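sry for the spam today, last one i promise. struct tokens for design, 398 residues
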């Protein structure tokens, strides 16, 4: 593994953290060496943090981290502004610290106007009537206490499921942040939650709430809070300790990133965009039952014209006539072309900066006995401003 050297004890602590979450971001290749898998993100245990960044040719660590944050923002629908991950104060921040700081600043923007509130139903036995009388309770449990009234009433309160989620995230992330400015910001935010009950991580993650007109402005902080809290795990070696494994499968992240961009670009043009939806099947059994559902990464359709995209987080080799594309991937795309009657099936890869080729269309081949096209294309994830143009050009060429 390239980068900072870790001791065996540190590697073992990180290994316990990842096993507690049920993932495998790395594996052992010797007593003091580990090999990173397809995951990117962050694993943190007591006194040690391991950041895993994608390999992007031509970019240093800081720029790679900014690209990753941008991809996460698009894929998770969390807007990331230019100033969120730039500036001298963020140069030495790892991915986890940047996401904690992003959560804190988004929450501060909303909390300045006060916490969100909602009506919550309560039942209490009071000496006076408040709200409505709970008749069944009054004439059963309180039958011998006529001086007490069983009341059922609504209270406009800040102690909501949403606010308990946010408070839990603030409390937990204060302990995880290593940047003084972020810690101060979270401390300031925590003071606004004095009327909200504390809850455990497992409790707030198991509670659900509906995003409506009353709390829609809080959707982004809530989404970040749930993301960061979902990354928590517990290790039991030497007692209970907090651990964090904020990991993303780079194949799935690239797929979600492209799908989110495609929706924004293609939908206004009148295309129907489906991402990872089980649609048509490959075969039927003797009883007519569908078997082997297909799940195209991206199915784009307008006026009967179909284009199927499949994303691959791997590098192609433009020096080879077949680009070193796996034969299994070609078989898969041939199957999609046949099943969906697509005029064009597109294998989409990240662009390699060190080649002389420009991103976009790399090659287009005719599918035998079908008549459609298999297109090999790349996109430059380091230049998101150009991605919309690249996708539109690929669709126009179909």
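last one done:
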């Amino acid at each position: 593994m390239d980068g900072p050297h870790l001791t065996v004890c540190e590697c073992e602590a990180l290994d316990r953290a990842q096993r507690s979450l049920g993932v495998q971001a790395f594996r052992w290749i010797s007593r003091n060496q580990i090999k990173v898998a397809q995951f990117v993100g962050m694993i943190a245990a007591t006194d040690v943090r391991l950041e895993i960044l994608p390999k992007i040719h031509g970019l240093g660590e800081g720029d790679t981290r900014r690209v990753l944050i941008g991809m996460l923002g698009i894929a998770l629908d969390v807007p990331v502004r230019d100033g969120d991950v730039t500036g001298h104060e963020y140069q030495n921040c790892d991915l986890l610290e940047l996401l904690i700081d992003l959560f804190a600043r988004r929450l501060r923007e909303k909390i300045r106007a006060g916490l969100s509130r909602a009506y919550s139903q309560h039942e209490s036995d009071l000496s006076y009537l408040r709200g409505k009388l709970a008749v069944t309770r009054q004439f059963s449990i309180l039958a011998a206490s006529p001086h007490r009234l069983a009341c059922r009433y609504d209270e406009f309160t800040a102690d909501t499921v949403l606010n308990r989620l946010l408070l839990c995230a603030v409390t937990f992330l204060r302990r995880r942040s290593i940047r003084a400015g972020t810690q101060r910001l979270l401390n300031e935010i925590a003071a606004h939650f004095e009327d909200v009950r504390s809850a455990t991580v497992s409790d707030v993650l198991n509670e659900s709430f509906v995003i409506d007109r009353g709390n829609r402005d809080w959707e982004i902080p809530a989404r970040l809070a749930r993301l960061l809290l979902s990354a928590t795990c517990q290790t039991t070696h030497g007692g209970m300790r907090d651990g964090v494994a904020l990991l993303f499968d780079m194949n799935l992240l690239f797929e979600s990133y492209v799908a989110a961009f495609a929706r924004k670009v293609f939908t206004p043009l009148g295309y129907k965009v489906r991402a990872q939806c089980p649609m048509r099947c490959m075969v039927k059994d003797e009883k007519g039952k569908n078997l082997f559902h297909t799940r195209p990464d991206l199915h784009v359709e307008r006026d009967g014209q179909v284009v199927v995209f499949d994303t691959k987080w791997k590098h192609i080799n433009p020096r080879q006539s077949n680009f070193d594309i796996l034969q299994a991937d070609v078989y898969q795309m041939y199957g999609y072309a046949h099943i969906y009657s697509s005029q064009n099936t597109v294998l989409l890869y990240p662009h390699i900066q060190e080649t002389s080729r420009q991103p976009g269309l790399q090659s287009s081949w005719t599918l035998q006995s079908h008549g459609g096209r298999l297109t090999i294309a790349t996109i430059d994830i380091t230049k998101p401003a150009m991605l919309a143009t690249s996708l539109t050009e690929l669709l126009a060429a179909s």
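The domain at 270-396 is CATH 3.40.1350 (Trna Endonuclease; Chain: A, domain 1). ok im logging off now
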